[in-house]
């Protein structure tokens, strides 16, 4: 079988992100991304111009719009950045990246206007402030707003960073911009001479994010991991710290890592007991807006059978977690709140089908093992339907006999999932997580012993050395 190459990427954008492009001229930047991704189903592209204006003023605009639409892009015209968050096709959307390249308000006095004019500068600032304010309303909790802008005088006087701070956004990174990174992108002047390019000179892409309230608990689950935030000069640990003057730092991090999981991922937790694992991740991230946590039990059952379930649920709800009860992992992809969702990580810790003959049942019984296998097999099939193209299904499971007889890897293969990694599991990596027995003795913990987290994806790993026999 052919190995699958994971998400397609160009510079710091990838097909894994939901992207909104704002203020496009001839749509050449959008086309550049779409060609890099091959498809543009993850992109919304907007322009202030009407279709008629594009036809008259840009020689290649309509051919690019047609290409974008053919690749699945949603193209919206006559969209004002000052009010885009209220646009009928955008009001209910949330984006991971919102991008505005070289914002320009137009010229107050026609082509004879000067960029160094104070009034002209203030009009530019009003445009950018309005864009940032609107963009923050349609940004995911962990998303970024990107503004590419000249950094020489008089453009430096527009003070992009200060404008962002006025609307509650904080700088997380600056990166030098080069046209060489974006083949086929033709930056256009707009205004009176729309179809002409302009020299970009010294430019920077400013990246902004919302400020998050991070946990101040004593736990530090964060680790530096490869990913979109590695190498950032502004990464701050899970305890947000001000400088010695009490002012907010210039750079704010909006992502924290807990072992193999991050606030950058859309996470579905399956078969939660007292929801302590979900609460552990939420504390590490400082927010649970990216987490959906499910349980087979009803809320009433949790109240009666788990001593800490309700306090964990309250904490999760306060952190923005979506909580669903009475969710059967075998049919969860058909659940009305889940059937149209896709996740980056779907996690089931210590799956157990319950005891077929009550508490007297033996884990060594072939009938008990078959019951467990049926549960896990159905979970894999359902989870696969809800996985993003680059996502992973995780199962944490004991690896000693008789649990090794479940043959987790084989069950996954039957459901069309392939092993990409196996990692030893330790409770020490997840402070606050209390694994529960469930069944007839719900609130009791059990020794995890030798356990591993098995990680599966819909495609064979590029490196065959990652596939091992178990």
UniProtKB/TrEMBL annotation:
Gene Ontology annotations of biological process type: rRNA base methylation
GO cellular component terms, semicolon-separated: cytoplasm
Domain 25S rRNA (uridine-N(3))-methyltransferase BMT5-like, first and last residues per copy: 20-189, 268-437
UniProt xrefs under Pfam families: BMT5-like
GO molecular function, one term: rRNA (uridine-N3-)-methyltransferase activity
Listed name of the protein: 25S rRNA (uridine-N(3))-methyltransferase BMT5-like domain-containing protein
Organism, as annotated: Prunus persica
